Amino acid sequence: MTKSAGKLLFDGSDWNFATLSRTYDAIEEIALGELKLDIYPNQMEIISSEQMLDAYSSVGMPLMYQHWSFGKRFVFEDHLYRKGRRGLAYELVINSNPCIVYLMEENTMAMQALVTAHAAFGHNHFFKNNYLFRQWTDASAILSYMEFAKKYIAKCEERHGTSAVEAILDSAHAIMDQGVFRYRRPPRLSSEKERERARERLEYEEQTFNDLWRTLPPSTRDREEAERDASERKKALNLPEENLLYFLEKTSLILEPWQRELLRIVRVIAQYFYPQRQTKVMNEGCATFVHYTIMNRMFEKDQVSEGTMLEVLQSHANVVFQPGFDDPRYYGMNPYALGFAMMQDIERICTAPTAEDRDWFPDIAGNGNWRDTLLDAWANHRDESFILQFLSPALIRKFRLFLLTDNAGDNFLEVASIHNERGYQTIRAALARSYDIGANQQDIQVVDVNLLGDRQLRLRHNVKDGVQLEETSRDATLRHIRHLWGYDVSLVGVDAETGETLYECSTDGDML
């Protein structure tokens, strides 16, 4: 039986702004009224494929500053797109207030409805309510800050030259992943006072320094004083420091004020994207669940046709497709597939639980309130904790998950756990751990620097599971750090469990 044409919001693939507005209102009614979503105001914009490629190249920010790497990426993405080797996203959404949603002008009306539900309501709700985004980003200020950053960098290029600006940005981009606070807020100190104190100490040291003393063997008292001085120095500099960009911005003795501001701009952008890296499964799962639920509800209300739903379901199926481990297309767990499946599973556990579900999830099994359960999960979890708490044995069986152990000293892989009673807990814990950014990203910290001595910046890499840094990129990155620091930089790799030193390297006076 076909839908009544009189109730349909649209008919066919063509769209206009009146149709978009009418469909948006219908989606909003379901999203806010039935799903109880809480969103920022939406700012919808229609863009061309070239504008979408431009957004790709500038990490999705509408007011990104200029840099050669963005142009290089634009050429790369454009080449693949023109050759038909890569498609473009149907939409792009910015975590801002108002929430900016870009829709591709080439989309059919069915796709415009789908991506409006997905981005303008699913992603929007997650951005506004998840605790990581609330604590670590400022949606109301990011656009104005990016506008300032773009203008500031353009003025720096006019005043100091493009090459000088690019040299600082190149080095800052090279250590961008080490430019975020993972465990604490940035300390609110007067950087100007700290720099002034450092200058005074250096001037005093230069006036009183006598190279002859370096040839004398240190006495026990000298060593004790050195250890005490080192302890006081580390305390004053708040060492060890996890945020390398922040430390260089505040402490480097060679950077001028405008160069420090460039480091701060890159650091703010890195921090802005950090929550998104920790919530990929939840964020995409939330948006996918929302669009799937809304589009099916619109179909039940006779607002969209069977043809529209077929197109929507085909696109949805492509998004949540999960290749098997032996499929050439396999690249790991699809965050859309895993997130959507877990949220559907939570709905099932809340409404039609099995005896197994009641054993594993006594707090939510059969509570009948899947909406509030999901709203609470979206607000209070990141990927790691979400998987650790909500991944069910039923879903582990559905995905046929198993755990491989890969020891560096062995020439084989071992299947350590499979989807059975003995393996559920182990598989769930291992999958959750794989989404822990803190555990999987290299832990490199500033541990010491003697501003009154050799001024060498000492870094420590806490090596986990024996995974060391690739030598070529490691040395290149150290040279970038030296460029920003101005003096030698050393790096020591230490086994995180035993404390054994695995490797040592330094810049040895090399400059970029």
TrEMBL record:
It comes from the Bacteria. NCBIfam families: PRK11767.1 (NF008737). InterPro entries: Spore_V_R, SpoVR-like_C, SpoVR_N, Ycgb-like. Residues 215-234 are annotated as: Disordered. Transmembrane segments: none annotated. Residues 443-495 form the SpoVR-like C-terminal domain. This is Spore cortex formation protein SpoVR/YcgB (Stage V sporulation). It holds the Pfam family SpoVR. Residues 220-234 have a biased composition (Basic and acidic residues). Residues 14-438 form the SpoVR protein-like N-terminal domain.
